[in-house]
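Session log. Operator J.P. requested a structure for one protein chain; no other inputs attached. Running the standard single-chain path with token output.
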Amino acid sequence: MQTRDAPPIRIGNGAGFWGDQIDAPLDLVRAGRLDVLTLEYLAELTLAILSHLRAKDPRAGFVSDLPDLLVRLVPELRIQQRLRIVTNGGGLNPRACAARCGEILAASEMGTRCIAVVDGDDVLSRIPEWIAAGIELANLETGEPIATVADRLLAAHVYLGAPLIAEALAGGAQLVLTGRVADASLALGPAAAWFGWSWTDWDVLAGGTAAGHLIECGAQVTGGLWEEWDQLPGLAGMGYPIAEIASDGSSVITKPEGSGGRVSPPIVAEQLLYEIGDPTCYRTPDVDVDFTAVQLIDQGPDRVSVTGARGRPPSDHLKLAAIFQDGWTASGLLAVVGAGAEKRARRAGAVILERLGRGGFAPEASLVECLGAGDVVGGVVRPVSPPFEVLLRVTVRDSSRAKVERFCRELAPLVTSGPPGIAGYAAGRPSPRPAFGYWPALVPRALVEPRLEIRPAADWTRETCGRPVQK
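Structure written below.
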């Protein structure tokens, strides 16, 4: 796209998860003077939701909000013809997402604009052969081999990196749809394409990754969740982040002028360490990053420079996120009011479980919580005085749907056959829903085959057309 001597690339991230602020991407595009808009939608929970949707409809499995957003962005794409969009909203089915987005662009007389799909992250069909070859894919938390859940797997996706995103942009793609890629790679790919970075220039890649990591969670780096939230201006109009990434990998984190929130060194520092197990070695598919020498310098209102990230070659393994069916679950809520509310609520929860046991429907797993009595952060904080009202939440999980259905029928009877002061039952009986388990593991990098395909938008609506590019 550009060269090493090019000015900084302006990358704005308009989503930190699926369900983030609906107007943020459009506001960012209108006010941010962006070169690239990224949208980071995927989390482990999102993979579970998407796998459930795809199981019901093979054409589903991508972030359904993305096509709706694209419709709203069409007028801006006409005006800002240099703007590129990079997102992992393709989810578990980026090709179906590309077909839908292609329809939207074609209907908007932009059918010649190119859409790229980066996939190869879906390795579900290869799990049996890997197991047969003696590759355990051990759970990173328990050490168990994946063979113990192989017959219940619904999805298995490897975290890919930035190179094919960069190649897609260099090849003229204006919309890049990926499956499961590492969050920071959504920004590193555009920066690498913009400056022509080498994939072995580790310190530069580390700097780009640091910038991507800082903006990947959206408004968390512009004041979201900040402890001094009551001193931040304009929470209702919170500005979403922009990373101005320079050719040497350094960056400035900012936000659109006049938007709410704040960008300051303390806020940026908090996000820098967010979800970082070891600040000396933040592992990504592209580079291992050492954050310990990073310097954050206030450059004026809502501008913080980020320098000093150091990089090393990445691991020869990639992270695997697998989702498996884990039976059925349901949760029920009841309000309990009055003196001794916590005691009565806990007794009511115990009564539900006792009644299930008496009927032969004892669940494999259960959890009774009193929200308002310290159970949100159990064992950490207790109320200063006994609460006058609490929310009783009871959750069960079992491989038998019948047991969960029976649980769903046991909450309402407490209104007349339990302790006094129970309310909040007007919402109706809860319903069983599928329960999912998460299986994190590592896969040898050599076993994974990332793919890139670039087509004009109109061609994505026709299966036989296209220009596949395999790497």
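Operator note: The chain is about 25% helix and 25% strand.
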